[in-house]
Design goal:
single chain; alpha+beta; four-stranded antiparallel beta sheet
Length: 169
């Protein structure tokens, strides 16, 4: 038995309306997956830097050019300390990563930045060890979002931050 003449083109019409919507949803899901994966990789990178530094001794947290800090950032970016491998996240550079030392104040019950005085967190100058190390990407890592059929969107800034206890002396 044949369908009535008025129902013959329904499948083509429905498909032409739904296929662009399905493609838009699939591309949007892939963009969300890309952003999630990039954030996970960035967080893993800053965590690697923080844990590497948390176990080192004699680190000068007051000097951004300290060899141990530079070595830790290189380790987080490439997985090696000699910079012989490519970076895990394309476009992420060592100057984008910030390392800071924190100390717990038992009187005020707060955690704040270590000072760089003689009693501060400069272990090379005889200071005391910090309680925590914070590693972050303070200015963010830009990731572009491209979804067809939608207007161009602003890039998303990913700003992972990790705080770990300092175990070195």
């Amino acid at each position: 038995m044949r369908k009535p003449f008025s129902q013959r083109g329904n499948i083509i019409l429905e498909a032409s309306l739904l296929i662009p919507l399905i493609v838009l949803l699939l591309v949007g899901m892939s963009q969300i997956a890309k952003i999630t994966y990039t954030y996970f990789t960035l967080r893993k990178t800053v965590y690697s830097v923080a844990t590497y530094l948390s176990s080192r001794q004699g680190v000068n947290f007051c000097d951004a050019g300290d060899p141990t800090v530079t070595e830790a950032i290189t380790f987080g970016l490439t997985g090696t300390t000699d910079n012989s491998q490519p970076v895990f996240v394309t476009g992420l550079t060592p100057d984008m990563i910030q390392v800071s030392a924190l100390r717990f104040d038992p009187v005020a019950q707060t955690v704040g930045q270590c000072s760089c005085s003689i009693t501060g967190c400069d272990l090379a100058a005889g200071g005391t060890a910090p309680d925590y190390i914070t590693v972050s990407i303070p200015n963010g890592y830009q990731i572009p979002v491209r979804i067809p059929m939608l207007p161009t969107m602003d890039p998303i800034l990913l700003k992972p931050t990790v705080k770990v206890p300092y175990g070195g002396t």
